[in-house]
Design goal:
Elements lengths: L1 H56 L5 H11 L1 E7 L2 E2 L12 H16 L14 E8 L5 E11 L2 E10 L1 H74 L3 H33 L7 E3 L1 H18 L3 E5 L8 E3 L1 H18 L5 E8 L3 E8 L32 H11 L3 E6 L5 E8 L5
Parallel strand pairs: 7-9
Antiparallel strand pairs: 1-2, 1-5, 3-4, 4-5, 6-8, 9-10, 10-12, 11-12
Helix pairs in contact: 1-4, 4-5, 5-8, 6-7, 7-8
């Protein structure tokens, strides 16, 4: 499914970007061709003006000048004086005889524009001219002009033809470069789109895998107490003594509590993911919070023959804003882990201090410690570093719950090695916390 989604993203990206880029390139090509045609038109008009000026200012036209004019500008120049052609064979050669092109140009001028160079001009001053295009026998294009120039003894006519093959070659080169560029760009866009779409759906893929693993882990954790409940109920039905019944009833109650705790944690994490987690913000005194959780675990620690030390400064810690019960729950998860993973006779420290910009609460133990490669992963849901964590007392959700609670308070939670061995978990909360 994700592969199809990636293909769709790539196609949409290529089409969208390709259409926009193609339109821009097509506009640029159109503008460049329009500019090229305009420049050619200006150049051709300048050629007309140069020849007309030469005819008007000089009584004798030098064939050398005409040859240079033709060869340098790819022109065919035909001049008549009172309908008598100038004896000039021409210097620029085309695929068609120049006489045929000259005749075709004059015929097109007469047929389409009613411009006849054989009729004397009405004005003795004004120069009349028209410019148009003609095609050769093989559909090659030429730019043509016919001009009537009044003179003192009658009139002169000019038929000027310019080969457009260079213009056509330039335009063809531009189009080839355009399509080559578009092809290269589309290939590059395809490669980039495929890579980009892969990066875009990577979080989706990771989320899907995490969701699958989460559901599988939750199912696995629920299956164990359900199996115990099923066996206990079956045994309860056939047991004969009251002591046996009480034993199985206690087992059922304990498993129900375990399942209830697991379901509560799952609901809490689900509500955090969906953004519907209830959060009662208020003023929290860190001293009260820490002392209350300390008192709650005193008896638990004594029962395991461990020591719990309270380490808070003499001066009052600054009031923070947050949810007292949620923060107590987060600290409880850390103390649960410390008690569970610390050996008999071990030491646990619960403390807090004020830094420049935050309140730091920590739970330290002298247990086995956590390897560096696991320090980030232990906050993942259902993650367990070793087989000892597979015991049924812990599901691997406590640290995940603590992380979500601290995140809701815009704080950080992390773990460091304790000097001399063990682990120290830190909760860092903004001080004061702004909601």
């Amino acid at each position: 499914m994700l592969k199809k989604l990636r293909i769709k993203f790539t196609i949409i990206y290529i089409l969208t970007t390709g259409i926009i880029l193609g339109c821009l390139c097509a506009w640029y090509l159109y503008m460049s061709e329009t500019q090229l045609k305009s420049q050619n038109g200006i150049t051709f008009q300048n050629n007309i003006n140069s020849i007309v000026y030469k005819l008007q200012s000089s009584k004798i036209i030098d064939n050398t000048w005409l040859s240079q004019m033709e060869a340098g500008n790819m022109l065919i120049i035909h001049i008549e004086d009172n309908r008598k052609p100038l004896l000039f064979k021409g210097a620029f050669k085309t695929g068609i005889k120049r006489e045929l092109l000259i005749e075709k140009a004059q015929r097109e001028a007469l047929k389409k524009y009613n411009f006849d160079i054989n009729i004397p001009p009405r004005s003795a001053i004004d120069v009349n001219s028209i410019t148009f295009e003609i095609k050769g026998s093989e559909n090659e294009r030429y730019q043509a002009a016919t001009v009537i120039i009044p003179s003192s003894d009658g009139w002169q006519s000019l038929t000027l033809i310019r080969d457009l093959s260079i213009q056509k070659s330039d335009m063809m080169y531009s189009r080839i470069m355009f399509f080559t560029a578009i092809t290269v760009v589309m290939i590059s866009l395809s490669a980039f789109g495929w890579w980009f779409s892969g990066r875009a759906i990577k979080p989706i893929d990771i989320s899907r895998k995490q969701q699958t693993e989460f559901v599988a882990s939750a199912s696995h954790e629920l299956r164990s107490p359900l199996a115990v409940l099923g066996v206990s109920v079956s045994a309860l039905e056939i047991c004969g003594t009251e002591d046996e019944k009480k034993k199985f009833l206690n087992t059922i109650k304990n498993e129900c509590k375990r399942m209830s705790r697991l379901v509560d944690d799952l609901l809490l994490l689900a509500s955090a993911d969906s953004g519907t987690w209830s959060f009662q913000a208020g003023e929290v005194e860190p001293d009260t919070l820490i002392i209350s959780i300390y008192e709650s675990y005193e008896e638990i620690v004594k029962a395991k023959k461990q020591s719990l030390t309270l380490d808070i400064p003499m001066e009052q810690l600054p009031v923070i804003k947050g949810d007292f019960q949620r923060l107590r729950q987060a600290l409880g998860c850390l103390l649960d882990n410390a008690v569970f993973y610390t050996q008999t006779g071990g030491k646990i420290i619960l403390g807090a201090c004020k830094t420049k910009r935050s309140l730091l609460i920590y739970v330290s133990d002298d247990g086995a410690g956590i390897p560096d490669e696991y320090k980030e992963k232990i906050f993942e849901r259902f993650y367990r570093t070793d087989s000892s964590r597979s015991k049924k007392e812990h599901y691997g959700l406590g640290l995940s719950v603590s992380k979500e609670i601290i995140r809701m308070h815009r704080g950080k939670i992390y773990v460091r090695d304790t000097n001399g061995g063990g682990s120290t978990f830190f909760i860092e909360l903004p001080c004061p916390w702004v909601g």
